[in-house]
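Bench notes, bay 3.
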Amino acid sequence: MAEKIEIMETVLRDAHQCLVATRMRTEDMLPIAAELDDVGYWSAETWGGATFDATLRYLKEDPWERLRKLRAAMPKTRFQMLLRGQNVVGYRNYPDDVVQAFVQRAAANGIDVFRIFDAMNDIRNMKTAIEAALKTGKLVEGTVCYTISPVHSVDYFLQVAENLADMGVQLICLKDMAGMLAPYAAYEIIKKIKSRIALPLHLHSHCTAGLAPMTYMMAIEAGADILDTAIAPFSQGTSQPATEQVVAALKGTLHETGLDLNKLNKIADYFYRIRRNYAEFESPVNNQIKTDVLISQIPGGMLSNLVAQLRQQKAEDKLDAVLAEMPHVRADLGYPPLVTPTSQIVGSQAALNVMTGRRYSVVAMETRNYVMGLYGKPPGPVSDEMKKMVLGKKEPITCRPADLLKPGLQQARKDAGGLATSEEDVVTYALFPEIARDYFTLRDGRNQAIDNRQHAASRH
């Protein structure tokens, strides 16, 4: 059993991704950065997941610049990021050279811990990213995505963890992205992993179904070493348990975190004010316990974004129908864990099935690619009927999906041309070419305007 429990703070990444659709701006993070740095967290999650895309797409900010600014403001705290294996921070597989370049630049710009996962728990899709991260000398968390299905068992999760340990990762993360991990299930899985693998275990969960606080206590008893929490104003709902809640619960025990509640309360006061800035992105499910997530299995980060997308299409009233359709689509696709990008694939196809009124009358390209095997090997079988309906006479691939991809970095450098002014820009372009081009053009216009103002000022 672990003694002192370490804490990772998620407010700068997953917490706002889950509760306000990933819209927190860097300007709202920096004023409180020094106080966060002074807490003594094991790590702070500051990057990765949907933040890279959303920062560019919606906030018109440079995610690399955010990382550098936070790093300068928080020199004492380990920075952690979520990396989607071969998907990097995108929604498809990228060539190995793009994955390697991204990891190298992320480490150089301030990331200390790489949490690497694959939506299918397909080890082949994590290999390149893990090897690249280990090469930087940083810490690597090999991640097991938790889900519930007829093909997922305690021994299944143990096997994934053992495969990751064999690859040389320094920590194992059990990632419960939808908040479905029940207390006794957590105890059984963690106990078994800890009995077989001599590595620290980091647990990530969400409060969507109301289980996470109880699950965390049982996880501690089973030997978990690090827990993910969010400062109270950005906790609960589809986010993580409150940092203050966990710190207070463990005070005076063998597992005391050592964190100061007074410092945390001052940080909370700041974020209570900040959250008001993002009221338009609040979801009606944020403050509800939704045990129906045990059926839909939709992760917290996607739920708020799905609501926002349906709202844009004036179809928010279809949310319950889409959530009800998701487990059927998931079963058709061989029970993938629902986390980016499989959550988007299943969610989008479920939405199409509901909106058209006829299942699979329209099949999304991502669904076709999934059945083709381009996202990895499904955990369970996909029926021959489903394959025929989606693929026709084509046969799914059996190789590692990225083996089919040509190197992409040099082509991105060529295509970006003069718009890319750094290696980070080249990597950004390789990941999101259209969004990057729009952002670089906007950025260059801003910079030119600044140069013009400075030149005019110097003449006077």
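Next record in the batch:
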Amino acid sequence: MAHAHSTEHEGHGHVHLEYQPALPISNGKTILWLFLSTEIMFFAALIGVYIVVRFGAPAGTWPRPTDVHLVEGIGAFNTFVLICSSVTIVLAFEAARKNAAWLAKGWMLATFLLGGLFLGVKAYEYQAKFSHGIYPMLPHSRIYEDPGLTYVSAVRIRLNEVRTKMSADEARLQTLPGDITELESRLNSVSERRKELRGKDDLTPREHYELANIPQTIRDVRAELATARKDLPRLQETQPQRQERIKVCDELLAGPVKEAEVTAATAENPLVARAAVVELAEMVLPSHHGDEEHEPEAATGGEHHGLNEQYPWLKLPFVIPSGNMWASTYFLLTGFHALHVFVGLIVFACILTMRLDSRRANVLENAGLYWHFVDIVWIFLFPLLYLF
């Protein structure tokens, strides 16, 4: 920055220039602004890609919040939490400028707790997605984007997996009492054999080897016996539930799954084939979940649940158009934002170890700039993800 002024001496004007030795802001703030400029470009690119993908999707092919278990109220609460944290960090900065160190630390602690609350709510939201099988991509995700024979096959495979496991437990329950008796008899015979070998004066090399291995054999048999004794009451207690689950799987495999599979494979009209699979998909997870227009039973107080809601243990694959793309963009955007919140909490934890007097006001100011940026990013993400 240059300042110029003129003076007259013997009729001649002289110009004196004075130069600012550096930028009129601190080096720390300069570096932070440079960092934030890169972060702005990073999140602008992510949000821009989401906008293109979201609003470029054909009408009716992008999941609504209710389809992917997004609750607007929870997102709004988290928005309120972040806004409050931006207020508290400003109050901490003002207290530090006034040299009120303890007051500044109190507001800083409040900011830290509010940031932690935001991450806790976000973890709760993630758990809701995971529990319903909504993951970024296959093979972890149970989302299928188009109803077809591939989807029907996936439903059949899952039902067979559940039925096989239930049948295996049922078969084990039938043989378990005999297995326990056999293990007890084996344990007694091994113990008797050990006593017999210990009572002999002259042991052959083979008997020495046998005696040396008996302790390990006893430990193995005891472990098997303990497992069997533990499994028996559990399998007996859950037998009615297990038999009911086998019945449900058999009914679905012989009924709607088989009907959808046969119709989709033999129908000459592709629309008829697709309609049969769509009907199955709506049985698993109603495509108009919570929509009064498409669910008159819900509007009149009746119940309308999909199989995954009625039988959570089934964990059947389900159809959500553009569901995997939605999950990928949702977890990408909110995951990176949550990572920035976590970094902010690490910074706050370090700041809380300092004496927050006027000498540390610049540190709080820089931390506040970063936190305001994180808050602004969420202000953009909330309506995009939760309201549209």
